[in-house]
Design brief:
single chain, mainly alpha, 20 helices, globular
């Protein structure tokens, strides 16, 4: 089947869903442009700033579209075939992922643009709030583990890795330069961009001529050495002022994102490729993992992401100039990420079964697939592959930046540890577990940790929707269209976590017990989830009882 036809079908379905189901959600949440948004009501010029829709959508999209919708669809396609992954990307985005993002954005907007954790605190209980924060923190730990190891594996790949490592290092230095130019040297954004973008192109081209490999005299396992250095980057990214690294790096990363999306769409629509890889492999992958529920937690951010709720309620809700903008930002932004997932999946689809490229990691598969698309525009393959790999590393930096900083915020909230010592201490505490996991795990740790990352991410989405459902019931609305997808995601993720725990618990009975950190943390996540479900059930029961006892009018 021509990939062109698949791409056109996906674009058509997403367009129809945006207009029809998106319109339904607008009516369900009663969007009203006459209602003043927190961005206008507070408008402090720092966090609460009314922002034009095109700018806000671009910022929101670059914040949510990281490495998740690339790695997940590629792994799912390899394991089960491209058709199950594609169907979940399409329908998961429409009815769960995009709805989740829109609902989080609106719930935050109606609660003075506060975080989804604060929404849970206000509508459930303080205990539920603390449990929710703990769950988010554990989930962030797994994000850091998975994406740190993904980047390290890219840097040690034999063919292009050392060149991408040097380009990545230069890219971060360029970000610092841009931050200084804008903030300390008072350059205009236009002038700074005009200088930075050519330098960025030079870095992409020249990185392969300056390969950076860690000396084996210092690191017997180079991948572990890069793990440590990347976590050091995470530490500084978490405690440094936003203007010096994160904001300029995110700005430059946006160009990578849009260039990758544009190149991918050109490849899908004009490349003339056909789907060579099997559409369906079976209900179990080569290692025996079942399609249900593993497919859903593997695709992860490509169909639904709980971490998007943190972005929607953390920054985007503080910048909405009018309520109607929530539709393109919240619902439309996730559909755009669905297109990123389809492009990533296409890099598997166009390879025939048995192709040696399929044995490479998802980073290499994506980069080389994107390079084939870019080659259609006349870009030399070596430069195109370097672009793809550096783009991927940039998307990972987006995720690591946000995850580490959010982990610090949460620990500071839980411990009350403030000030500079608090920032440093809570950042170190957040990174200590990822460092421990990475050092005790063999190479390709991301393959081991990806399933539980996906499960915790999906479960976070379900728990966010649970808190939003309680709020909707309290305000007299029927949240059935939220509860139904929430229940589906909840079942899939708890089922997957149970599969991780089952062999570990079985070892207790047959005398073959072995320590398993993944199973242990999975058990903790299950326990926190069950406690939150009990809290929500009790509150919902109280709401129903209160409604029944209200006097008739």
């Amino acid at each position: 089947m021509r990939i062109l036809y698949i791409a056109l079908i996906v674009i058509a379905i997403f367009s129809v869903a945006y207009r029809i189901y998106g319109r339904f959600l607008k009516q369900a949440f009663r969007l009203d442009n006459q209602r003043e948004t927190p961005a206008w009501r507070i408008n402090d010029g720092v966090d609460y700033v009314p922002t034009r829709l095109p700018i806000l959508l671009a910022q929101h999209f670059s914040s949510i579209a990281a490495a998740g919708p690339i790695v997940g669809p590629i792994l799912a396609g390899l394991w089960f075939g491209w058709l199950p992954a594609l169907l979940w990307i399409i329908f998961g985005n429409i009815f769960i992922g995009a709805m989740h993002d829109f609902a989080n954005l609106m719930a935050s907007l109606r609660h003075k643009a506060r975080s989804i954790a604060e929404v849970v605190k206000e509508n459930m209980s303080h205990r539920a709030y603390l449990l929710f924060l703990l769950f988010i923190w554990l989930s962030l730990v797994y994000v850091i583990v998975a994406f740190t190891d993904l980047t390290a594996s890219t840097f040690v790949s034999a063919e292009y890795g050392p060149g991408v490592a040097s380009a990545s290092f230069l890219y971060l230095l360029l970000s610092v330069f841009l931050g200084l130019a804008l903030t300390r040297w008072n350059w205009s954004l236009g002038w700074a961009t005009a200088v930075a973008l050519p330098l960025l192109l030079l870095i992409i081209w020249g990185g392969q001529f300056l390969p950076l490999a860690l000396p084996k005299s210092l690191f017997s396992n180079p991948a572990k050495g890069w793990d440590i250095l990347i976590l050091v980057y995470c530490f500084f990214a978490s405690i440094l002022p936003l203007w010096i690294l994160l904001q300029p790096r995110g700005y430059l990363g946006g160009y990578f994102l849009y260039a990758s999306l544009g190149v991918g769409l050109i490849g899908l629509l004009f490349g003339g490729y056909t789907a060579e890889y099997p559409a369906f492999i079976g209900f179990h992958n080569a290692k025996g993992a079942p399609l249900f529920p593993i497919l859903f937690i593997t695709v992860a951010c490509g169909a639904c992401s709980g971490f998007h709720g943190l972005v929607c309620s953390g920054t985007s809700s503080k910048q909405l100039a009018q309520e109607s903008d929530a539709h393109p930002v919240g619902y439309g932004g996730m559909l755009l990420e669905g297109l990123v997932a389809v492009i990533a999946l296409a890099t598997v689809m166009m390879l025939p079964a048995g192709d040696p490229a399929l044995n490479e990691g998802p980073t290499q598969i994506y980069a080389k697939g994107l390079a084939r698309f870019a080659h259609l525009l006349g870009v030399p393959m070596e430069v195109a592959i370097s672009f793809g790999l550096l783009a991927f590393a940039t998307f990972v930096y987006d995720t690591l930046d946000v995850a580490t900083r959010l982990g610090r915020y949460i620990l500071q909230e839980l411990t009350g540890w403030k000030g500079q010592r608090g920032r440093i201490g809570t950042t170190l505490a957040t990174l200590a577990l990822p460092l421990f996991f990475l050092m005790i795990t063999e190479e390709a740790a991301y393959l081991k940790f990806w399933p539980i990352f996906g499960a915790s991410n999906q479960l976070l989405a379900a728990l966010s929707l649970l808190g939003i459902s309680v709020w909707m019931m309290k305000t007299g609305r029927n949240p059935v269209y939220i509860l139904a997808p929430m229940f589906f995601v909840l079942v899939m993720t708890l089922w997957a976590l149970a599969l991780f725990v089952k062999p570990w618990l079985a070892g207790w009975g047959d005398g073959n017990f072995q320590p398993d950190l993944i199973a242990f943390v999975a058990l903790i996540l299950i326990g926190i989830t069950l406690l939150l479900l009990v809290e929500a059930y009790q509150i919902m029961a109280q709401i129903k009882t209160a409604k029944k006892t209200l006097p008739a009018h």
